[in-house]
Specification:
alpha+beta, elongated, six-stranded antiparallel β-sheet
Amino acid sequence: MGDMDLDGALDAVGPRLRALRKEREATLADLAATTGISVSTLSRLESGARRPTLELLLPLAKAHGVTLDELVDAPPTGDPRIHMRPVVRHGMVHLPLTRRPGGIQAYKLIIPAGEPSEPDPQVHEGYEWMYVLNGRLRVVLGEHDFVMKPGEAAEFDTRTPHWFGRAGEESVEFLSLFGAQGERAHLRAKPKAKD
């Protein structure tokens, strides 16, 4: 990145920070409380009067649930659309569909085709809801070991030992909603009209 490119990227950070904060409907005071950065510094960063530094950008990226790359590579217009980057973890592609910190997080997960792997159940705090889009997903949940097909959903407390992977050699795609302990995905149906 040349000096001119760097200046352009840094100039784009202010409008991007403002767009991210407005998208989350947060005030400068809310952000100051979350990050420990003063309201005046945050205001000067957003207006471009203060040059962003790594010490300022790290807590802001965390508060907004974005990577440093997303803050610095942002279009100069402060484009508020979500530009998520896939992450590969444990051989699965995680595509984040939400960005707000806290609350329920949504992901599309893709397990590429290949040899089925051996279950390695894990436990952690939280609650998960899964919905299979394509392929066959093998789920090991406590003493249960079953295969989910497209259109099937499961929900469980992640303190139960759990593992999922491809049931065969073909790829699998599924949606995952994950929340902290006590947060569940509630599906609400419209009440039927009374006759």
